Amino acid sequence: MSAPPKIQLIDLHKSFGPKTVLDGISLDIMQGESFVIIGGSGSGKSVTLKCILGLMRPERGRILVDGEDVVGIPPRERERVMQKFGMLFQGGALFDSLPVWQNVAFGLMQGRRMDRAAARRKALEKLAQVGLGSDVAELSPAELSGGMQKRVALARAIASEPDILFFDEPTTGLDPIMADVINDLIVKCVKELGATAVSITHDMHSARKIGDRMGMLYHGQMIWVGNTAEIDRTDNPYVQQFIHGRADGPIKMELRH
Amino acid sequence: MNLLATVGRVFLEFLQYCGRLAIFAGLSLFHCLRPPVYTRLIGQQMLDIGYFSLPVVGLTAIFTGMVLALQSHTGFARFSAEGAVATVVVISMTRELGPVLAGLMVAGRIGAAMAAEIGTMRVTEQIDALSTLSTNPFKYLVAPRIIAGLVMLPCLVLVADIIGIFGGFLVGTYQLGYNPATYIHSSWDYLTPMDVISGLVKASVFGFIISLLGCFNGYHSKGGAQGVGQATTNAVVSASILILTTNYILTALFFDK
Predict the structure, then answer these.
(1) How many domains does chain A have?
(2) pLDDT at A238
(3) Strand pairing report for A34-38 and A196-201
(4) What rounded mean pLDDT belongs to chain A?
(5) How is chain B split into domains, by residue range?
(6) A136 with A100: CB under 8 angstroms?
(7) Is residue B248 over pLDDT 90?
(8) Is A221's pLDDT higher than 70?
(9) Interchain CB contacts (distance < 8 Å): A and B
(10) Of A19, A32, B23, B123, whose CB has the highest number of CB atoms within 10 Å?
């Protein structure tokens, strides 16, 4: 008998007013795999991630994490489920008012009630894991470059050694070299933790590097799911247009003339 | 017909706003009363609201007291009632001008800062990051500000009362030639505990209003820099209007016999 999925989305629907963003998504993500959701802007990638994280509530459908339905659970239960998660936000979302080490140790001190000295040691260890020295620990996030902020955000995401890691556009806004550094770090951290990873991106280089499997969202529907190695061989015209970045094809950009 | 539809829509939007604000207020109070209590954050907010607002509130109070003495003297001289100047200053400051002016000044200084800070955290996904780190944003961001507002506004108003009365004393004795002992005697004789207590109760309510609207507008801001700017303006304008409205209601409750 095969293991149950780590995350299971069943017939997920979400709309904003008249605009349907998720239109019946179903997806199984297995324990230990790295799944990448690709798709154009406005295709529903971020909303999918926010629904899994409980930051948005779908109108219909179920989200199972380790077999437990997490849609609409009470706040206390949500906090318990959140302890399984680590999230790297697109812009880093580091807390401006706190120094770097407190950003990294935030979940340990607030969520897990770890004492300050131990949390600081753990934060320095995680900063080292993403290639940052202790000299940045006391700096404010505003004093760091974009790449360094992303690394601090990654250190924060892995600090509490979560079961499931989420990455929202991890390479957006970075130069190609730094983007590759971040991709390598993501692969390394996910492997070391033995975690399940869910990433959303439209950077195909990043998707190929960090993903074991991929799924493509288009108009709120999962139109293709397969292994990373298969994506170049698929004859799905939407996927082909997207991965080759062609203007011509079935995907029409909504432009106003 | 269109005009009626517009009026109806605006009215419904207003009711929706009131409903959201009432739910937000209920949740804020609920989280103020339930552990964990972030004492360090409450202390920090108390410093911001109380100590750092002292100069602006003190300056407002002293000049208000001085003007009040001067205007009362010129007005009362027409009826040969100059002896009532000290009483008018002390009662006006403690019952009305102390709490209302301190409330309006703090709404401008602190309400705007709260909306801007929390609004920036909202648009940069820092509030979402708090949730993913198993930290309830209401407990971490809103409750400390509400508690600090409730506690520190009465303290500020007490200081404003003393400074304002002292301003009236300075003008009365040095400029208008009242006998200092008689002035103090007149001030003290007609001051009742209810004058001071009503002012402090008003201050506490104003503190709650300022913190609540600062947090509410910031928490619901969207759309980047423009959204944060709009939230800041809304926080100050709505808090000021609500302070003046509530002031009338509380005055009627305390003194309308």
Answers:
(1) 2
(2) 87
(3) parallel
(4) 88
(5) 39-252
(6) yes
(7) yes
(8) yes
(9) 52
(10) B123
Residue A87 maps to a domain: no
B132 and A85 in contact by Cβ < 8 A? yes
Mapping DSSP to helix (H, G, I), strand (E, B) and coil, where does residue A201 land?
A: strand
| Strand intervals (E) in chain A | 7-16, 19-29, 34-38, 60-65, 68-69, 85-88, 164-168, 196-201, 213-218, 221-227
Query: Do A169 and A155 have their domain in common?
Result: no
CATH of the domain at A13: 3.40.50.300
Nearest neighbour of A87 by CB, restricted to B124, B132, B136: B132
B132 reaches A (C-beta below 8 A): yes
Same domain as A239, residue A117 = no
- Say if residue A200 is in the same domain as residue A98: no
Parallel, antiparallel, or unpaired: how do β-strands A85-88 and A68-69 relate?
Answer: unpaired
B128 inside 8 A of chain A by CB: yes
Q: How confident is the model at residue B61 (pLDDT cuts 50, 70, 90)?
A: very high
In a domain, residue A256? The reply is: no
Which candidate, A251, A242, A170, places its Cα nearest to that of A211? A170
Considering the domain architecture, whether residues A65 and A104 belong to the same structural domain is answered as: no
| Mean pLDDT for all residues in chain B | 91
SS3 A60: strand
ipTM of the complex as predicted: 0.87
Could you tell me the maximum CA-CA distance found in chain A, to the nearest angstrom?
Answer: 59
Closest CA to B93 of B185, B165, B171, B12: B165
Q: Could you tell me if A15 and A132 lie in one domain?
A: no
- The residue of chain B nearest to residue A85, with distances taken between CA atoms, is B132
pLDDT of amino acid B97: 93
Residue B37: closest C-alpha in chain A: A110
Name the residue range of residue A184's domain. 1-73+164-246
- What's residue B142's pLDDT? 94
Instruction: Note whether A150 and A177 are same-domain residues.
Output: no
Q: Mean pLDDT, to the nearest integer, of A15-41?
A: 90
A57 in the same domain as A33? yes
User: Could you tell me if residue A252 is inside a domain?
Assistant: no
Global pTM exceeds 0.90 = no
For residue range B131-187, list pLDDT tens digits in order: 888 888 999 999 999 999 999 999 999 999 999 999 999 999 998 888 889 889 888
A1 & A69 share domain: yes
Give CA–CA dist A234/A238, Å, rounded. 10
Q: What per-residue confidence (pLDDT) applies to B159?
A: 95
* Sheet of strand A85-88: strand arrangement: A85-88, A164-168, A196-201, A34-38, A213-218, A221-227
- pLDDT category of residue B65 using cuts at 50, 70 and 90: very high
